[in-house]
Amino acid sequence: MKTYKIALLKGDGIGPEIVESAVRVLEAVGKKRNISFVFTPYLIGGSAIDSCGEPLPKATIEGCLQADSVLLGAVGGPKWDTLPGHLRPEKALLGIRAAMGLFTNLRPAKLYPALKGECPLREDIVAKGFDMTIVRELTGGIYFGERGYREGKYGEEAYDTESYSRMEIERIVRVAFETARKRRKKLTSIDKANVLETSRLWRKIVHEIAEEYPDVEVADMLVDNAAMQLVRNPSQFDVVVTSNMFGDILSDEASQITGSIGMLPSASLSQGKRGLYEPIHGSAPDIAGQNKANPIATVLSAAMMLLYAFDEEEASEDIVKAVDKVLELGLRTADLAHGAPALGTKEMTDKIIENL
Ligand code: IPM
Ligand code: MG
C-alpha cells in the first residue's frame, strides 16, 4: 500500500471544518483505492499568532517542506485585522508560498451543468457554458515587491511596487503553454501593457515562448477588458495566464460565475515538487464553527493533490465524480441554496463519501 505524508494547515475561521471534510474524503477514497495517508497538522495564520506570536512558525515551514504534500484551509479573521502587515495571518500564506517556491497557481473554474441555475449571468451566456483554468503567477509581482511608508510631498505616503524578472515570467508562461497543450490549445495572456512596464516585458516574453508552441493559439488581453469579457462571454476562455495580482482578482470573479466561491479548488506548484492545495476562498469568519461552510472547494483541492502530487488519477477522479453526483442529486450547502433548507458541512461531506 502506498502511504503519503500530508501536512495539514487548517488555519482560521472555517479552515478547520473544511480541512476535516477533505481529510475524511481522502481517507474514504484511500480505503477504496488502497492508499494510506499520514496527516500532520501545523499552525498557520491567526491561530499561530495566538499560540506562538507569529503567523508562520518555523516548525510549520519545516513540516511542509518535509511532507509529500500540503493541504491548507484558509487564514485570517477580524481578530487579527489590525496587526501590522508583517504579523498579519495573510503574511503566512505568502510566506509559505515563497518558502515552498510555489510560483504556479492553477485555478480551474467551470460551470457544472447542475449549477447552471446558480450562475448570475444571462441565460444565453449560461447556455454556452464555460470551463477554464487560470494560471496565476504566485511568488512575484506586487505581492512581493518593495513596499513601505515614506514622507512625500503631501505628508505620509505608502507604496508597493510591482517587478517581474524574465526568469519569473518565462517559467510561469511555459507552465501555461504546457497546460494549454493538454486542454483546448488556447491561451489568453492577461496584462496591462498599455500602462505597465512589467506587462510589456510579460507580453514580449509570451510571444517569444509562443514560437516554441505553434500548436497553441495565443492572444493578449488587457486586464480591464478581461474582467468584462469574463462576464460577457466566459466560454471564450480556456487557459488564462496572468500576474499574481490580476490572477487574484480575476479568479474571484471567475468563481462567482460558477455559482459560488465555495466551489473553486486550487493547486500551487513548484518545479518538480508536490505542492500545496487550497480552496480559493477565504476563512469566512461570519460562518466559522457553525457547520455551514461548503466543503467542496477543499475536497476538490484534495482531488487535485491526488492527481498532481501523487499521480493517483483514479482516486482523484472518484472524488470529482462524487462531487458531480451530489450536485446532480440537488444536494446543496447554504451558499448555493438561496435560503432553502441546506446540508451542513458534515452532511455534505457524508454525501460525497457515500457517492465515492
Ligand atoms: C487568494 C487569497 C490570498 C491572495 C490572500 C488571502 C493573501 O485572496 O489565495 O486568492 O491574495 O493570494
Ligand atoms: Mg484571492
In summary, what is this structure?
The chain has 356 residues and is of the alpha/beta class.
Q: What distinguishing features does this structure have?
A:
single chain, 356 residues, alpha/beta, globular, binds 3-isopropylmalic acid
Give me the secondary-structure topology.
Elements: E1 2-11, H1 15-33, E2 35-41, H2 46-52, H3 58-66, E3 69-74, H4 89-99, E4 104-110, H5 123-128, E5 131-137, E6 147-152, E7 155-160, H6 166-181, E8 186-191, H7 197-210, E9 217-222, H8 223-232, E10 239-242, H9 244-257, E11 267-269, E12 276-277, H10 296-308, H11 313-328, H12 345-354
Parallel strand pairs: 1-2, 1-3, 3-12, 5-10, 8-9, 8-10
Antiparallel strand pairs: 4-5, 4-11, 6-7, 11-12
Helix pairs in contact: 1-10, 1-11, 1-12, 6-7, 8-9, 10-11, 11-12
Bound molecules: 3-isopropylmalic acid and magnesium ion (MG).
Description:
It is a single chain. The chain is of the alpha/beta class. 41% of the residues lie in helices and 20% in strands. It contains twelve helices and twelve strands. It has a ten-stranded mixed sheet with strand order 2-1-3-12-11-4-5-10-8-9, sandwiched between helices. A two-stranded antiparallel ribbon has the order 6-7. A hairpin with a 2-residue loop joins strand 6 (147-152) and strand 7 (155-160). Helix 1 packs parallel to helix 12, helix 6 packs across helix 7 and helix 11 packs across helix 12 (345-354). The longest helix has 19 residues, at 15-33. The mean pLDDT is 96. The structure holds 3-isopropylmalic acid (IPM) and magnesium ion. The site of 3-isopropylmalic acid has 5 residues, from helix 4.
